[in-house]
Amino acid sequence: MVPQTLPEARLQIDALDEQIQKLISQRARVAQAVANIKQQMGDTGNHYRPSREAEVLRRAIERNHGPDGGPLTDETIARLMREIMSVCLSLESPLTIAYLGPEGTYTQAAVQKHFGDSVTARPARAIDEIFRDVETGAADYGVVPVANSIGGLVSHTLDELVHTKLRICGEVTLPVHHHLLSMQGDFDGLTKIYSHAQSFAQCRKWLDARLPKVELEVVSSNGEAARRAAAEGKGTAAIASLQAGRINALNILASNIEDDPSNTTRFLVLGKQEPEISGNDITSVVMTAHRNQPGALFKLLQPFAENGLDLTRLESRQVRDSVVTDYYFFVDFAGHAADPKVRAVLETIRSDAAFFKILGSYPRAVM
């Protein structure tokens, strides 16, 4: 019943809040029961299941379009459900997630979007350190940037993926908006701007048009850029997120300075597990073709087309320390390696490749 007066509306909200709280508590108790059941079955590892999380979020979004759907956007519904799942999962098995620090980086924002706030976020100083933290067990999972719609590939991540034993367990897509931040209140006297190389690439046109004479210094992350701008004070600025600005008490000199308003960064979730089939999955592989064989790359890609597997990404990366020019080819396609049809295709490609490695099969990002 739609309330007609303010007191009626407030009474109805209070009653709904009580119901919501009871249901969330009930869900949490069931989550604890799930943890006990898994322990009795001998499952003593962490209880995060990427395919199950993706399934729950997709169902929540589907319900938002059904007869009981309301005025909230799909993104809002997904965020609310993710936080509820995050809290409940923390009761089953608290997670530690390594990310590219310090606080305030876009990678930390990707952690929060994918895992919620009820995890321990562990900042790392470099991408290779994130891989090591997960490999050694210092973190349960790691989140690393892999590509940006403007700045392109993150080469350090690709290099590490070739050699690691970790698997890609998930992906996160994050709209990225850059802001010029400083201790001072205007552009006057700015001599240096700190930021990550990717952020400079994503804001190149804006910087060339408005601050062409200011020195640009590359640092390890946007969070580090904000920290340095705060420490050095007037004359310096940083390109970073609003969160980094709040953490370091910086003023906003300009907002949304990225050259493309649809600027998006893709992140990968790294772990030791093999996610189950979720019904909407991506498989990532890396391979090299045999040298000096005409049509070698075509031969590797042909089985995808012949078997109706949709390629969603194809990127090349030169092999480091190669005497001659060899390239790794990174391929993403729709499907899961556990599917018999997909497995047969991958075995065909493996037999024709000079080097071949499955990086992971994982649920496609829900939002």
TrEMBL record:
Domain ACT: 285-363
Keyword flag Kinase: no
GO cellular component: a single term: cytoplasm
Coiled-coil regions listed in the entry: 6-40
MF annotations from Gene Ontology: chorismate mutase activity; prephenate dehydratase activity
Entry keyword set: Amino-acid biosynthesis, Aromatic amino acid biosynthesis, Coiled coil, Cytoplasm, Isomerase, Lyase, Multifunctional enzyme, Phenylalanine biosynthesis
Chorismate mutase domain boundaries: 1-96
GO terms for biological process, alphabetical: chorismate metabolic process; L-phenylalanine biosynthetic process
All residue ranges annotated as the Prephenate dehydratase domain in the record: 96-272
Subcellular location: Cytoplasm
Keyword Isomerase listed: yes
EC number: 4.2.1.51, 5.4.99.5
Pathway(s) this gene product operates in, as recorded in its UniProt entry: Amino-acid biosynthesis; L-phenylalanine biosynthesis; phenylpyruvate from prephenate: step 1/1; Metabolic intermediate biosynthesis; prephenate biosynthesis; prephenate from chorismate: step 1/1
Database matches in InterPro entries: ACT-like_dom_sf (IPR045865), ACT_dom (IPR002912), Chor_mutase/pphenate_deHydtase (IPR008242), Chorismate_II_sf (IPR036263), CM_dom_sf (IPR036979), CM_II_prokaryot (IPR002701), G/b/e-P-prot_chorismate_mutase (IPR010957), Preph_deHydtase (IPR001086)
Residues marked Essential for prephenate dehydratase activity (site): T265
PANTHER family membership: PREPHENATE DEHYDRATASE P PROTEIN, PREPHENATE DEHYDRATASE-RELATED
Function in brief: Catalyzes the Claisen rearrangement of chorismate to prephenate and the decarboxylation/dehydration of prephenate to phenylpyruvate.
Protein name: Bifunctional chorismate mutase/prephenate dehydratase
Taxonomic source organism: Solimonas terrae
Gene expressing this chain: pheA
